[in-house]
Amino acid sequence: MGFFAPVWKSNDRMKKDKALKEVRSINSKTKLLRIVREAQMDEIIVAAAKRLTELSVMEPDNVPDEGVLSAVKELTNQSALEHIAKNYSNVYIRSAAVEKLTDQSVIAEIAKNDNKMRYTAAKMLTDKTLAQEILADLIKESPKQAPFLAKHITDQKILAEIAIKAEDYYRKDFRGWRISDEELDRALENVMIKITDQKLLADILKNTGHLSTLFRAASKLTDQEAIAYYVMNMPNEIGNKKAPQWSTPSSNIASQKLAEKAGFVKLADVLTLVM
To answer: Which domain, by its residues, includes 195?
Structure first.
């Protein structure tokens, strides 16, 4: 009795068309996953990946199929991975496929054009300038992601632009939802922590409309002229009842000196009594 392997498992190029026809008609994800793992011809692997993608419309978007996820993590065929990365319905499966891609032009295409995969693809880019620009755009489009995304941005000019233009685009995320003052402040704090360039800090000081950002820029400046500009503009803010305040324990001398450097004037000592 002879043993006959499935036609899709053959490496005989003469059987390719027959194997492709069979794979394209399969409705079993289990069988398709086996083909993705075991087929020897690239065309068959790609065809199985495409058929899996077609069937993926039946899957819930928020829960990945563990069998598919495992197969994608083992997959090395770049054409199959590209198709899954661009077309699979489940974002977790797509993300896993993006992380296995090696062609930088494909990764860049996804990073530029695919809103759901931009962050994952940007992390895979070797062109760090492009990666920084994409991450900056993501922050502008969805400010609520800023605390998470800002840590991946190192370009000082991009960070400064975000700080200066915060009032223009942080008030609404890309869906038009207003974000709170607390969320805005938290997002910008992560941005300002990373800015060290004195010229950019001075630019932020003169151009930002966000008071906490104004204060953070002043506290990091060593340029006395720029600090003087900050101090001279403080009365206008006080007149509008928008003056920032600095509170520090009497024992924290370093904090007190930093406050004085930033232009703050001591108003009072506060004694707290616990009854």
So the answer is: 128-243
